[in-house]
Design a protein that fits this description.
It is a single chain. The protein is α+β, with helices and mostly antiparallel strands. Helices cover 45% and strands 18% of the residues. A four-stranded antiparallel β-sheet has the order 1-2-3-4, covered by helices on one side. A hairpin with a 4-residue loop joins β2 (135-142) and β3. It starts with a helix and ends in a 9-residue tail after the last strand.
C-alpha cells in the first residue's frame, strides 16, 4: 500500500498543497490572472471614455432644453403662488397641519386669501433671479409675517422650494 502511495505522488502534479516544493501557481494560472487583469483594465477605460462622451453630449442637450423651457418673468403670479403656499397646497398628505376635510380647506383658503391680499397691500417684495437662462429663482418677501418664500422656475413651471423667516429690523429706543 505504501508503494502505491509513492507511485501516485511521483508526477508532482498530484502532490498535496502543503508541499513546500510546489508553492508557486502553474504558468497557466498566472497567464489567466494577468489576462483577467488586463481585460478588466481595458473594460474600465472603455467605460470611462463612453461615460465622458455621454456627459459631453448630454450636458448641452439638457442645457438647451432648460433654456428653451425656462418660464418668463410675466408667468410668475406672486399673489396666486403665495395663496397656494399659505393654504397648504404644497404640503405632503402626511403633514398634520395640512387641511383634511372641507371645512379645514375652506378656512385655510379664506385665511390664505386674506393674508395674500394684506401682503399685496403692504407691498411685498418680489425678486426674480435669472441663472444663465436655464432656471429662475423667485422670492416673495412678506413684510407682515417677516417670511421669504422661494420658487424655482424651470421646464415651463414654477415650483415651491421653501419658506424662510427673516429677522425683523429692530428699532432702537432712546
Amino acid at each position: 500500500m505504501a508503494a502505491s502511495d509513492r507511485t501516485s505522488t511521483k508526477g508532482g502534479s498530484n502532490s498535496p498543497p502543503d508541499d513546500p516544493n510546489n508553492s508557486s501557481p502553474a504558468p497557466s494560472e498566472i497567464s489567466t490572472i494577468a489576462l483577467s487583469l488586463v481585460g478588466t483594465f481595458v473594460a474600465a477605460r472603455c467605460l470611462a471614455v463612453v461615460s465622458r462622451l455621454a456627459t459631453a453630449l448630454a450636458a448641452p442637450i439638457c442645457g438647451f432644453y432648460l433654456m428653451s423651457t425656462c418660464p418668463t418673468n410675466e408667468t410668475f403670479d406672486s399673489k396666486k403662488e403665495l395663496k397656494r403656499v399659505l393654504r397648504g397646497f404644497y404640503k405632503s398628505d402626511a403633514d398634520p397641519s395640512k387641511p383634511k376635510n372641507f371645512f379645514e380647506k375652506a378656512l385655510a383658503k379664506v385665511n390664505a386669501t386674506v393674508e395674500a391680499e394684506a401682503a399685496a397691500l403692504a407691498g411685498c417684495n418680489v425678486e426674480i433671479i435669472d441663472l444663465l437662462g436655464l432656471v429662475k429663482i423667485a422670492s416673495i418677501n412678506n413684510s407682515i409675517t417677516q417670511t421669504s418664500y422661494y420658487f424655482l422656475g424651470a421646464v415651463n413651471k414654477w415650483r415651491y422650494i421653501m419658506a424662510k423667516d427673516f429677522p425683523g429690523k429692530e428699532t432702537k429706543k432712546d
